[in-house]
Structure formats: C-alpha cells, structure tokens
C-alpha cells in the first residue's frame, strides 16, 4: 500500500474559527460536528433512561422510593423522548454520520465524499430536525412512544405533529447521507481499489446507504399521510374517519424494520475492522461477510410484519413473515461464525477497542438467539410487547450497535484527534458498561417471560425484585460512561501525540498522518492488495 | 428428556392455565436449550480462540486463511435447518391458536381507556373481570372504543390487539381454576399500566350461579344499579368516590349540592342537572384546574333509567 507523507497542517487547524466549521465541506469536520451533537443527544436520552429505571425501582405503592415521577403522563413522555432521541438522533446517525462520514473517503483513498456540499446540507437537515424535536419538549410534549401508533397519536396533543415533522426532516438527512455514500463508493475509489478490496466497514456502509435511500422515503410518506389526516381531515388511519389504524403499523414498520438494519449493519462493519486489526489476521470469508450485508439489507424489506403478529393482520401473513424472518437470521449467523473463525491462529491483542468487539459478539449472540425466539409465531404471541422485547432490542441496539460505536471511537480516536487516550481508563469504562448492561437488561428477559408488559409506569409486586436489579445495573452503566467521558476528555487535553498507525492496521486511513491533512492524502494512494493482508 | 424439563423449570414462564400454554412452553424450552448450546459454541469458541491465540510477541506471524467453502456451507446450512424446524413447529401451534372452536362460549370484550368492558350474550355486563367455566372453549370477541389496546393473559399464552373500528378474536380453554392476570399490552396512554383485569376460572356450577346473580342485579334499587354502572363504565378509573383525591378527573366524593368553580371562572352548583350534563356533554363545563377533552361523552350509550341510576349514586357519595 502506498505510504504518504504529510507535514504541518491537518484538517483541524486547516482553518480557524466557528464559522469555518459551520461552513465546512470537509467530510472529516462534518463527521466531527455530528459526533458532538450525537454525544449531546446521547447524554439527554441517557438521562431519560436513568429516570425511567429510577421510577421502576419499586411499584408505585412502595413507600418513599415507589413513585419518583409525578404521574403516568410524565413517565410516558420520558419514555417517548428516550426512545425517539435514542433511535432518531443517536443510533441511526451514530455510525454512518460520524464514523462513516469521517472514514469512508479515507478507507477508499478519496479526498472527500462525492457531494461535499450535500454532505453539509445533511448535517443542517439533521440539526433542524433535532432542534424541532427538542422544541416539542417546551410545548405540549409528546407521549406516543417512538412508534407514533395511530389512533393514539391522532388523539393526543398537537406536539405530535411537530415531532413527526422533525422525524421527517431528519429522514431527509439520512437519505442525503445514503446518496452521498453510494456515489462515493462507486465513483471515488483510489486507483487499484476494486470493490473487492474495500474494507468491510465500507461494504457495510454501502449496504446501509441502500437501505437509507430506499426505506427512509417510506417514513416520509407515512408521516406526510399522518399530517394530511390531522390537518385536512382525510381518513387514512383514523377509524372515525373511515381509516385503518393497522395500516399505519404496516407503513411504519416497512421503514422501521429496515431501519433496524440501518442501525446494526454498520456496527457489524466496525467489528470486522476491529477483529482483523487486533488479530493481525486476514478476515475469514471476506466475500461472505460483504455479501451477507447486502443479503440482510434485501431481505429486511420483507419482514416488517413480524412486528404485527397480534395486530389483527391475517394469520397467513403472520406465517409468511415468520418464515422470511428466519431467512434473515442466516446471514447474521454467518457473520458471527466468520468472526470467531478469524481468531483461529491469529495474534489477538486485548486493547480496549478489541474488548468492545468481544463485548459486541457476546451481547449480539444473545440478542440474536432471542431474536429467533421472537420470530417463532406462538412464542411471539406471548412475548410481544413485553419486557422480553425490550431486553431483546436493547441487546441488539445497545449491546450491538453502541458497543461497536464505542469500540470504533476508541479505535479511530488517535486518527481523528491525533492524540492517544488512557488505555486503563478505556478498559475500566468497558468493564462497567459491559457488566452494567447485562445486569440491567438480562433480568428484563425474565420479566418478559413472566408477562410484564412494556411501557409500564407501575407494575404488580411479583415483578419487583428483577426491576430493582435492573435499576441497579443502570447505575453501573452510568459509572462506565462517566469514566469513558473522563478518558476521552483527558485524552483530548493531555493525551500523547498519536503515531500514524498505532495499531499496525493495513487499511488506508492509517497510511496518512494523525490527524489527516485537509485533503486526506498528500499523494493519491495506489492500492495493490486487499484490506487485510497480514502475512 | 431431563435437560428439556430443566429448561422448562428455569424459563420463568407463568402458571400454565391452558393446553396451548403447555405446547408453547415445550417449544420455548427447546428454543432455550438450543440457544444456550449455540451461545456456548459461539461465545465459548470465541473465548477459547482469543485466549489460545493471544498475542505473545509484537511480531507474531498469523496464518493466512481467507475462507473454507465446506465449513461456510455447513454453518449456513445447519442454522437454516434449525430455523426452519422451529418455524414449522411454531406454525403448528399458531394454527391451533388461530383456529376458532365451534360452539364456544362467546364473550364480547371492549377495550377503552383504561378498562375492559365485558358483556355476555345474555346481556350481563362486568368490568375488568371475566368469569369463565373450566374446560370450556371460550371465544373473546374484541374491539376498542378509542385507541388500540391489547388483551394479554400471560398464563394462557394468548394475546390479541383490540382495534377500534373492527373486531378481532381469540380463544382459550382454561384447565386450571383460579384468578389470572389480564394485562393491556398495547400502550394506550396515562393509565396504561393500571388497565389490569382478571380472568376468573370457576367450576361449571359456580359459573351458572354467577350468571343467575347477574340476572338478579338488573332488578336492583336505583342507587345500587348506579353503583354497578359506575364500575362497568369504568368511571372509577378517573374519578375518586371515597376521598377527595384528585385522579385524572375531579373527585365526586361529597360534592353534591356544593358550588364548583369552572375553568372560565363561573360557578356552578353540583346538582342533578350538572351531573347529567357532565355525563352527556363532558366538555361543556370543566372544573377549574382540569384539562378539557379528556372525558369521552356517554351520549347515546345510556338510557334515561341508567342516567337516573348514575345520578342517584353520585348524589349519595358521602
């Protein structure tokens, strides 16, 4: 692989002043701006989560600790904001918009994405949507849950319309990013960078981008129909006007199921990078992993009905959706096996990013097998809308995506900021998050099996012990993130200067200086081999 | 099949109240055991490999293994077979859950914010309590008067959404006596988590007695009838009757004959006509400090006799 030499200026000090950031078209700076915003929203969504757990520490009737939030309406609002913020403002943009923006061009030896100005526009769309979403908090607030199910969402306060508009605008941002990535991958690869020499993270972003482009417009259409119904009184979802509330669920999940993969496929991409780098070994089954991302993306469009087994949709539809869901499980299992096989005869180093990768695999395995359980019809009839589902998607979204995101941050931190962080701090943070996560969410599987429904402000005494354990776990996660925050801030302020390639990785982004110069590479790289040629 | 029973014992599923519940738990037990084995293989394999091949020197040489077609075929094929097997098994049970039995005892259940209204074929009504005889097919015909609710009895392993504007149905055949929780599992607003009822499984004799009792209740004195209606219409989920406590709506305790301040500043005496108006046109005069548009109208749902019964009951809350 080509070596480049760079001296002096990097992208951070290339231009100065706030204005130079707000008008930048540099993909790295835009990635960093996403980073700051997403971190902020993660903090807000996290505080909401802690409040929910605190409320559920004991049944409302218990003295002192029973009822923390004033009433059910406030609980429902906190629950809604936690979900909406974490999904639309943290997990969906988390990996593609931050690490994808920053590293996709670097990975393929490009100077920038294909449409740098559209890239900046997508950040502004995201911000506009996010500000609108937060603004609803200062009006009548929303309490629909992040799913906006009709007819509840039609009847409750008008702020729902505003939140829906916010999600619509953020959806635009997601579409624009997807468009940019697809064109960039096809048009801007460096000489010699064939499709089959692209790092797997790029493949995963490519599959995600296709989903973003094809699925997100459906969310836009749905939200538009909601607005049409609300403001023009045309009956679409409201039975009072002759509409069908279940139709909304079809529309919603037609977007939101692929969106689950928008959230998780990039995470799988990061894991492939971490595992090869820290095993110093070529990935096992490059082609299988690359194409299984595309396979998951394709099948994910045809499984939406598995969210609706008890909604009143036809039994036949339920059977078909259950069958297709089983098929989507296979490529996911393939990836897990490939990663495990990559360790075989490798040279595994337990640096903090690698700990997150191992944590990911542990939690994702549990998230995966419980996903199969939920796909089995009669099992889902019992588990649907109980805490079992809550536990399952937290294992996939938090245990999966968030672990990968954290691992990715620690992995690319030296490249992004040109500084090293305290390895000890990152490890302590990991231990607290990993243990805390399991303490919080594993008991929720059991609560679900026992029958505790989700979105519950209060519960019967039989569920108390497990809820207590779960709440204690949330405090461990808090400690973990506080240590992580300290580690990152300390690394930024006092960290040692990072070398060009601290991990001995083979992919292109490590062959330029840390942090990279404004144009990424001082000499255009020429690629002569695959991304994981550790020989 | 001891391992199988161990898994069942550890699964924390609620009491099995029906035959279907046993079938569901068998499948769940199988899934738990296979999942556990799969996790041990994947996570155990991972731990074994990363420890065995941990980095010893900075310049470790690693093997160059890019793929292995036979292995990859195997680990795609085996999961596929397992997935399809559990899919088929699930289909078999689901089919029984969805096939409505003929000659079942039919009970209409209406979900509303935030209670379950139960009506038997003979006109007998109850709220949040469904009494059914043991060993009898029961078909529940569900709908909702406002938003979507979901009818969930954990012990029977059954669940079905109650959707406004249409009917959905489910059936069960309870084979254990006792009280079983009925939860709402579709988020429906303020008191979603308090929308709890019970299914009471009784012997055939007790059930017949219960139905007769229901007939007698129709000939009750006016106040008693009002009390019953107050419960059936789930008024109590929003209005306190034995203390001045504020719930979703204002308390009705010791209100009769007193003056109330409205949100537009006017004062209205809490008399028979105000009670009547509040039931039929709840948003016309709202008590100060309470939101408009929360209480649904009962226009057309109550006849004159029922209205009088409610007024009589509320009048006497002392």
What does this structure look like?
The complex is a heterodimer of chains A (535) and B (318). Chain A has 535 residues and is mainly alpha-helical. Chain A is built from 15 helices and no strands. In chain A, helix 10 runs antiparallel to helix 11. Chain A is globular, with a radius of gyration of 23 Å. Chain B has 318 residues and is α+β, with helices and mostly antiparallel strands. Chain B has seven helices and twelve strands. Chain B has a five-stranded mixed beta sheet with strand order 3-2-1-5-8, with no helix packed on it. Chain B has a five-stranded mixed beta sheet with strand order 4-10-9-6-7. The longest helix of chain B is centred in the N-terminal third of the chain and has 34 residues. Classes of the chains: A mainly alpha (535), B alpha+beta (318).
Order of helices and strands of chain A: HHHHHHHHHHHHHHH
Of all chain pairs, the largest interface belongs to:
A-B, 86 and 81 residues
Mean pLDDT over all positions of chain A: 91
| SSE string of chain B | HHHEEEEEEEEEEHHEEHH
